[in-house]
Specification:
Number of strands: 13
Length: 166
């Protein structure tokens, strides 16, 4: 629903081999059609990055559909294991002449595999100190459909009717 805060937009799984990796930043992109996935769908054009229940960073889509996160907490991807990070956002409200003025936008935030290295997704090896670039494959999140309202469904008791034969 529009105006909702802390909406889970995607989850990204990172894995490491050979040594633990300190993740330094993540490249993200808004995907989908040009009619949807606008940075204006997000309050302040911003998403946050979460490791479980801890916020570890954020990314702002300044003027385009791509952004690079700033991680404020060390995120370690374990050697031979994986770390799943959650991308969350606050959905802009829908209002006449507002930022979003109609229901139906499909907001998708994905990992940007085209942007790796020091300007995109990278980490450093904990033991070696070597720079490790992120994977080059984009993700394809299902996305969230932004609506002004949604129906409420309630279960009603089934009335009992006693039929009498004659």
């Amino acid at each position: 629903s529009s105006g909702t805060t802390g909406v889970t937009l995607s989850k990204i799984k990172f894995s490491a081999t050979n040594e633990n990796i300190n993740l330094k930043q993540i490249a993200l992109r808004l995907s989908g059609t040009t009619a949807s996935s606008s940075r204006s769908d997000l309050v302040a054009s911003k998403v946050t990055v979460w490791d479980g229940t801890t916020q570890v960073g954020e990314a702002v889509f300044p003027t385009s559909i791509t952004a690079t996160s700033t991680l404020t907490t060390t995120v370690v991807i374990p050697n031979g294991g994986a770390k799943v990070l959650t991308i969350k956002g606050d959905i802009s409200p829908i209002a006449f002449n507002g930022v979003i003025n109609k229901s139906g936008d499909l907001l998708k935030v994905d990992y940007d595999g085209a942007n790796v290295g020091l300007n995109g997704t990278y980490g450093t090896g904990v033991s070696s100190g070597a720079t490790v670039n992120g994977g080059t494959t984009n993700t394809a999140a299902s996305g969230v459909r932004i609506m002004r309202a949604y129906p409420t469904i309630a279960k009603l008791a089934v009335p009992s009717i006693l039929l009498q034969g004659g």
